[in-house]
Amino acid sequence: MIDRIKIRGARVHNLKGVDVDIPLNKIVGVAGVSGSGKSSLALGVVYAEGSRRYLEALSTYTRRRMTQAAKAQVDEVTYVPAALALHQRPGVPGIRSTFGTATELLNSLRLMYSRLASHRCPNGHYAPPSLAVAAGRELVCPECGEHFYAPGAEELSFNSQGACPECGGTGSIRIVDESTLVPDESLTIDEGAVLPWQTLMWSLMKDIARDLGVRTDVPFRLLTPEEREIVFHGPAVKHHMIYQNRTSGAAGEMDFTYFNAIYTVENALAKVKDEKGMKRVARFLKEEVCPSCGGTRLSEAARAPKLRGISLDEACRMTLAELMEWVDGVPASLPEEMEPMARSICESFRSAAMRLMDLGLGYLTLDRASSTLSTGERQRMQLARAVRNRTTGVLYVLDEPSIGLHPSNIVGLNGVIRDLVADGNSVLLVDHDTQILKEADWLIEMGPGAGAAGGRVIAEGSVADVGNNPESRIGGFLSGRADTRIRRPAGDVFGGAYSALHLRHPYGKASGGRNSQRKADCGDGRFRFRQDDAGTRKPCPRPEGPCRRDAAAGSCAGCGGGGYRTCQAD
Fold it and tell me: Pick from 41, 26, 19, 109: which is nearest to 395 by CA?
């Protein structure tokens, strides 16, 4: 019976002809100091060969359209299954991606609103929920008798027909930032004070502005409000003038349309065709919330259906934990004949959401832009999606899945990894966290040092075996024998007596729980730090006193003026 992957003579990066067996259908941890060759073994050999061999089984036509890894520098790898990698730093998603779309929770939610909601007729009245929607039949308004069709799930998507017409489903619009058009008001217009006329448009706009009554030979700050109005918002009138080329001296009569400073930028933006052109225009733009959809990304029609008294955009503004409670009440709020269909749709939502809750992501809202999520949050989203797919016989390679996780969230992560194995998969994970490594069925430790001093297997076996292995660098930490103090105290660092470290619960209760807030006495010569769950907001750590929250008084370097910050490791 084949129960392990066999690797012989691995020489990727700093690996020195590594021979090792990796058990299948188990959780296998790869430990070692940074730079010891952990990722080289897990990703550079095992994942590279597993994914490459799977792709080679596909047709040539398909392979030509996919990125393929080169063969790993290894003598032999046998019995490796198809492999998927959840990288430490997933790619940054696009502007249209949100937490809801990336996790596909929004698909189930849109289906709820399409099939189960009260829909609005063209005259503004609401028809009660009906099975006619699922059957694709016309609805009849009970108020005015108007016949109409309910929107389908695609018509409620901001990436499709439900997108806001003004922002195109992005939730934000680019507008000209007037403060960037004249960065130095001590210059005259002739000297290039109006920057867009210097970089995006012919400089003869200065000549037209002069003919329209604007003084171009005085500092811009001395212009009257009327002259400023012409520069920034003047009408696009045609102007007949004699133009002389300053280089060749040639002159001639020509008709030119006046482009004010703002329209100059808008015209250039409309003609952008590549990234280089966008860079020239971007300096004059700023992003604002779309005034039409209020940042919801949805058209007015997509925001019209109501389920349990709220619209789709309101549901997306709930945290995942709040939304799960709300979804639980959906079947009971509908007519009895609709309850079976409602329970089926809601259960599909719950099964996907529970994995994310287990991974500690219950504080995120579905409308949160994916680009604002931390790498740890995006990696956990990947992991939840992998479990939801219920694959069998796949090797999952996880690169430091505990990154950014509070210890209280690792319990849920361990449960999700166990579910992957229970479905008949194998898990190979690279990590430093002993709380994760202790859950492994088998450990492989690389080392003993980093770079050229590493690249060898120095210990392998069960957690207990590695913990008792004298050659292991991590064994003492797994068994609890290691002395965690690695250097002597540096003395009176803070200029006074050491302050005892006190533990205080965030809600004023006694400490000791896993969500304890740790706090030291504050004041001169004292040290303070906070520890909170991932995703919580920490007070701004300004050393000189309370944060300046008034943006007009000057933004705070710690929080930007908001008074709180979100930990970057979340």
Answer: 26
